Amino acid sequence: MGPVAGAAPRAGATPAQRLARIGLVRDWDFLLHLPLRYVDETQIVPIDSLVSGSHGQVEGDIAEVRVSVRRRRQLLVRLRDGSGELLLRWMHFYASQQAQLVPGRRVRALGQVRGGLMGIEMVHPQIRIVDGTVPLPAHLTPVYPTVAGVPQAWLRRRIAKALRETEITDQLPAPLRRSLDLMELGAALRLLHEPPPQTDAGALEKRQHAAWQRLQFDELLAQQLALRQARARRRRDGAAPLTGDGRLTRALLASLPFSLTADQRKVWGEIERDLAAAAPMNRLLQGDVGSGKTIVAALAAARAIESGYQAALMAPTEVLADQHFQRIAQLLQPLGVNVAWLAGRSREALRRDALADIESGAAGLVVGTHALIQEPVRFANLGLAIVDEQHRFGVEQRLALRQGASTPHLLMLSATPIPRSLAMTYLSDLDVSVIQTLPPGRHAVRTKLISGARREEVLTRIRAEVAAGRQAYWVCPLVEQSDEIEAMAAVQMVEQTRALLPELRLGLLHGQMSAAEKRLALQAFAARHIDVLVATTVVEVGIDVPNASLMVIEHAQRFGLATLHQLRGRVGRGAVQSTCVLLFDEPLSETARARLKVLYETNDGFEIARCDLRLRGPGEFLGARQWGLPMLRFADLERDAAWLETVQRTADQLLERDASGAGSIIERWFAGAAQYLAA
Ligand code: ADP
Ligand code: MG
Question: Which partner for 287 in 50, 74, 291, 357 could form a disulfide, CB atoms 3.0-4.6 Å apart?
Answer without folding.
Answer: 291
